[in-house]
Structures are given as structure tokens and as C-alpha cells.
# Entry
Amino acid sequence: GDSVTQMEGPVTLSEEAFLTINCTYTATGYPSLFWYVQYPGEGLQLLLKATKADDKGSNKGFEATYRKETTSFHLEKGSVQVSDSAVYFCALSPAAGNKLTFGGGTRVLVKP
Amino acid sequence: DARVTQTPRHKVTEMGQEVTMRCQPILGHNTVFWYRQTMMQGLELLAYFRNRAPLDDSGMPKDRFSAEMPDATLATLKIQPSEPRDSAVYFCASGLPGPIDTQYFGPGTRLTVL
# Structure
């Protein structure tokens, strides 16, 4: 079945540091890929998405590129802020249907 | 700003009691999902509906959990009887079916079963 694997946290960074969160997936066909973010005490919010190979999703300074050859969708941000402290979830939706499969989440803590 | 709403936000109950959680999807969304989040298991899909009909409830313990959509503006998740292991945050999400399957999450119901 479909699965998503992402690096375990917590990831602790200083403000303005570079952030990478690795995400790889297993799926048949051509899934859509997503990053969701969960701030403390809140529900998940869509951060960015990509629907086909080589697509780059971007939002709020975050980027991720759909790499079919490596089945990856790594999340990056060049200069993090304290407000980026949250849990980040990588997810996929199969080619047909909209049932999401989530990774385990990566907690990111940015210190001033 | 359309949002998914969930009530109650917090619920503390004793083992054996019935718990009902409610969700109002975004107007016009015809797909509704129920998730459970725990530290140990992460985010698990319990059930989902399209046009009020259940499509998949394989993630839900059938003996004590039930999910329904009495109408297009209300989804409910019931636990009867509740057990301490049901303590978790329960999220509802809604969306539209299509090639880009974005789900919009509610703020969650934090359930504590003593």
C-alpha cells in the first residue's frame, strides 16, 4: 500500500538557519504530494503541494520539488523564523481518489 | 474566511460514557474525513464520507465507534462506550473531490477519557 516516510524530529535550529525535512514515498501511479503544517494547539494547514513530476510547490518561503526518480518531496526553507516552529507532515494522495496518507510528522523548533 | 468547525474543543469524560464529537464542513465541500492523532500512532484516518455516504471506515474500531452525516452541514463521530485508550485529538477535515485533493482541517477535539 501507499506510505510516506519522513525524518524523525525534533529538529532544533537557530533563527535564519537553513531547514531541510526529508520525505520519501511509496505509491503506485502518479500521486499528488503535500506538505501540511500544524502549529501548537491547531489543526493541520496545507503549506504547499505538487501534482506531477518536477513540479515545485512553494509558499511562505518554503519549497519542495516532486522528484519521481527518487520518490522524494523534501521540504526546504532558506532562513527560518521562530514563527516556523511547528510540526510538519508530508502526505500523498493517490492518482485516483482523495484519501491522504500522512507521514509521522517532524517537529521543528526554531530558537531566537 | 470559510473554516471547518468542530465542537467541543475539549472533552473530559469517564470510562464507559458516550462521547459525541461534531463537525461542520466548509459549505459546498462534499467530502468529510475523521482523523485521530496520538503521540504513539501519529495521524490515523478513521473514516471518510462523500456526499454523506461512507466510503471507507476501515480505520475505525467498529465495536465502539460510529460516524454519520445526518445532513450536508453536520458530521458526527460517536464513541460508546469510551475507554482511556481513546484519549486523543480528533480532527475533522473537508474537501472537494478532484485532481488536486486538498483537505481543510478543523481545530480538533481533544478527548480525555479517565
